[in-house]
Amino acid sequence: MTGVLEVKNLNKSFDGIVVARGINLSLTAGKVLGLIGPNGAGKTSFFNLISGVVKPDSGAVTLAGVSIDRLKSHERVRHGLSRTWQHIRLFPSLTVLDNLLVGTHDYPGESLLSVLLAHARLKQHDKIARERAADVLGRMGLSQVADALVSDLPYGQQKLIGVARALMGDARCLLLDEPMAGVEGQSYAAMQRVVRDAADCGVAVCVVEHNVGFIQDLCDEGVFMFSGAIMARGSVAELIRDPQLTELYFGH
Ligand SMILES: Nc1ncnc2c1ncn2[C@@H]1O[C@H](COP(=O)(O)OP(=O)(O)O)[C@@H](O)[C@H]1O
Ligand SMILES: [Mg+2]
């Protein structure tokens, strides 16, 4: 079965440091894949390469059967590739709701006519976006903070809002970089539920996370990355029991 996201022989090095070493990986609709490995393994770089933030030295990436290698980051987003960042990237002085709504509509164009014609479409779009934001916040248990400033919220809630923002578009593929880092226990269930819901709606999900319990509870399968290479793929339980992988994980 062909994956929603297909990565073929992806390679990248920075000044001699290899961060992607012939990576082949497939992400399947409706499945959550855990990506584990020690710090410096190349996990974030892998997301940067797929999302078009970093240009690979070689390799090919397709999304829903279409080559995205030549697309810019924002074009990949429009094509259904959504991601979060290891470190929060929100607008702290905007409300939670506005953070979710920012960037959800296309720029109408330069001419007065195109703006006027776009007005009705934008209003309709805005209504749909607000409904979606309310739905996502509701499922995360964050409805009561919709009008709060992001800067006034605890770090864990800000992380959840980062994920909520990634779910605002029509994602086909969702890449989550350490969604649980800094998140307190009370947000655990909300994070699990929202990611699982996305997968159940057919999104192909890949999650980087050091919280092994979280990965084990959430993921259908896992891959282990070390020094830019995928070393193993299997059930998360198998991967974390493997003595050689454990040595690689904790030995570095
Ligand atoms: N833009 C960059 N320029 C140079 N080196 C980088 C860059 N991005 C990442 N690296 C290096 O690549 C390696 C992998 O980093 P990273 O992908 O962040 O690993 P991980 O997310 O698994 O901790 C590290 O040694 C890091 O310093
Ligand atoms: Mg990282």
CATH topology: Rossmann fold
Bound ligands: adenosine-5'-diphosphate, magnesium ion
Percent helix, as a range, is: 25-40%
The count of DSSP E runs of length 2 or more, i.e. the number of strands, is 10
* Total domains: 1
Taken from the alpha-carbon principal axes, the silhouette is globular
Binned strand content: 15-25%
Secondary-structure-derived class: alpha/beta
Multimeric organization: single chain
What order do the SSEs take from the amino end to the carboxyl end, as H and E? EEEHEEHEHHHEHEHEEHH
CA distance, first residue to last residue: 36 Å
Low-confidence parts: none
Count of alpha and pi helical runs = 9
Major sheet, described briefly? 6 strands, mixed
CATH architecture: 3-Layer(aba) Sandwich
CATH H-level superfamily? P-loop containing nucleotide triphosphate hydrolases
Rg calc: 19 Å
Describe the structure.
This protein has 252 residues and is of the alpha/beta class. The chain has one domain (5-250): Rossmann fold (3-Layer(aba) Sandwich). 38% of the residues lie in helices and 23% in strands. It is built from nine helices and ten strands. The protein has helices at 43-51, 73-78, 96-101, 112-139, 155-166, 188-200, 212-218, 236-241, 243-250; strands at 5-14, 17-27, 32-36, 58-63, 66-67, 81-83, 173-177, 204-208, 221-226, 229-234. Strands 6-7-8-3-9-10 form a six-stranded mixed β-sheet, with helices on both faces. A four-stranded antiparallel β-sheet has the order 2-1-4-5, with helices on one face. β7 (173-177), α6 and β8 form a beta-alpha-beta unit. The longest helix has 28 residues, at 112-139. The radius of gyration is 19 Å and the shape is globular. The structure holds adenosine-5'-diphosphate (ADP) and magnesium ion (MG). Adenosine-5'-diphosphate (ADP) binds next to β2 and α1. Adenosine-5'-diphosphate is lined by residues 14, 17, 19, 37, 39-45.
